């Protein structure tokens, strides 16, 4: 199957990797050639890590990389695609523009998926003349490790498209859940509540960042605490999701002031080297001076 992935950032290159590993031909497209190159380099690093952990062979890495090509031209990514997955930033206006461009350039029978973590798939599909082929495909980060994909069913999603999405997720070796199109879906809505409350507790002085995360990891047997997860996904992403959920679902999702202060200071987490934690080479090396 030919797959076009639009957006070569954290989620986009991860989605490209799992598709190529499953045997699909992938074109990873971004408007910035440097981001495309960085995305492919990140895929190579992930695959080399799999070799070091005896999860893959050098031959398998070579075959996976051979199935990935980079592009900055939209037509190159979608003109012969069977499936297009949009993974651009969480901005409704940007996504609508991309969707219109996809419909103009892609085959009429191609399925169009969006990796949005919270925005309305129904609203996105409303941009298209043939909206029945739109479906949400919400992958989780890190995509090459986490097994869940939420299949988001929009108001317009056809039964054929929904069935295609489930078969596709199965072929990737991942697990699909079916979620109706509602603000925050299931995962983002639940995660937002945990993360928001964790920041509120830090703000109130209930416990330190480390102890809240430690309580969550050990007490609930989770791989990552809610505040570490904020840093991992991005403070800016979390503020955006909470603001959207506040608008759609009410005040209980309003971003805490401590989270907004991090955002305004440009302390966005792992990607900037500091959020609630201090990061070096993808690892936590300390607590931010104002992380409490």
From TrEMBL:
<feature type="domain" description="3-hydroxyacyl-CoA dehydrogenase NAD binding">
    <location>
        <begin position="2"/>
        <end position="181"/>
    </location>
</feature>
<dbReference type="InterPro" id="IPR006176">
    <property type="entry name" value="3-OHacyl-CoA_DH_NAD-bd"/>
</dbReference>
<feature type="binding site">
    <location>
        <position position="30"/>
    </location>
    <ligand>
        <name>NAD(+)</name>
    </ligand>
</feature>
<feature type="binding site">
    <location>
        <position position="117"/>
    </location>
    <ligand>
        <name>NAD(+)</name>
    </ligand>
</feature>
<dbReference type="GO" id="GO:0008691">
    <property type="term" value="F:3-hydroxybutyryl-CoA dehydrogenase activity"/>
</dbReference>
<dbReference type="InterPro" id="IPR008927">
    <property type="entry name" value="6-PGluconate_DH-like_C_sf"/>
</dbReference>
<dbReference type="InterPro" id="IPR036291">
    <property type="entry name" value="NAD(P)-bd_dom_sf"/>
</dbReference>
<feature type="binding site">
    <location>
        <position position="271"/>
    </location>
    <ligand>
        <name>NAD(+)</name>
    </ligand>
</feature>
<feature type="binding site">
    <location>
        <begin position="7"/>
        <end position="12"/>
    </location>
    <ligand>
        <name>NAD(+)</name>
    </ligand>
</feature>
<feature type="binding site">
    <location>
        <position position="90"/>
    </location>
    <ligand>
        <name>NAD(+)</name>
    </ligand>
</feature>
<feature type="binding site">
    <location>
        <position position="95"/>
    </location>
    <ligand>
        <name>NAD(+)</name>
    </ligand>
</feature>
<feature type="site" description="Important for catalytic activity">
    <location>
        <position position="138"/>
    </location>
</feature>
<dbReference type="GO" id="GO:0006631">
    <property type="term" value="P:fatty acid metabolic process"/>
</dbReference>
<protein>
    <submittedName>
        <fullName>3-hydroxybutyryl-CoA dehydrogenase</fullName>
        <ecNumber>1.1.1.157</ecNumber>
    </submittedName>
</protein>
<dbReference type="Pfam" id="PF00725">
    <property type="entry name" value="3HCDH"/>
</dbReference>
<feature type="domain" description="3-hydroxyacyl-CoA dehydrogenase C-terminal">
    <location>
        <begin position="184"/>
        <end position="279"/>
    </location>
</feature>
<dbReference type="GO" id="GO:0070403">
    <property type="term" value="F:NAD+ binding"/>
</dbReference>
<keyword id="KW-0560">Oxidoreductase</keyword>
<dbReference type="InterPro" id="IPR022694">
    <property type="entry name" value="3-OHacyl-CoA_DH"/>
</dbReference>
<dbReference type="InterPro" id="IPR013328">
    <property type="entry name" value="6PGD_dom2"/>
</dbReference>
<feature type="binding site">
    <location>
        <position position="141"/>
    </location>
    <ligand>
        <name>NAD(+)</name>
    </ligand>
</feature>
<dbReference type="Pfam" id="PF02737">
    <property type="entry name" value="3HCDH_N"/>
</dbReference>
<keyword id="KW-0520">NAD</keyword>
<dbReference type="InterPro" id="IPR006108">
    <property type="entry name" value="3HC_DH_C"/>
</dbReference>
